[in-house]
Specification:
Distance between the termini: 77 Å
Order of helices and strands: HHEHEHH
Largest sheet: 2 strands, antiparallel
Oligomer: single chain
Structural class: mainly alpha
CATH class: Mainly Alpha
Number of strands: 2
CATH superfamily: Large-conductance mechanosensitive channel, MscL, domain 1
Amino acid sequence: MFQEFRTFIAKGNVMDMAVGIIIGAAFTAIVSSLVSDLINPIIGLIIGGIDFSNMFVVLSGDGPYASLAEARDAGAAVFAYGAFIMAVINFLIIAFVVFLLVRYVNKIKDAAVRKQEAAPVDAPTGPSQEQLLAEIRDLLKARPAA
């Protein structure tokens, strides 16, 4: 069973997937920072200074809270729709960047395939059909008549 597991791990697809997951996790952190630190303030400025991270509705609790963190620390049940909006924006940005990446990789693969198909195939060199027929003719002429 250990040998089978080692064979499974050594396959290229598993290693590619592992690298992809690690890079994806790092990429997600970058996109989350992009959304929370750059995009949300711009959107908030456009719609009147609203901070998405503090958009919430208290479902149960003692009273009004100044921030989502304060409400959560107090143990109040909150409907944090601002966090959901941020998650949707994160997803859309990540999905768009992945789309661009896959599109670019597919273009590179297609170009490599086209280049490979366009490369001339080395045909075996030898006499042409006309040369072979001329040799046969000459051999027939040189043959003594029976």
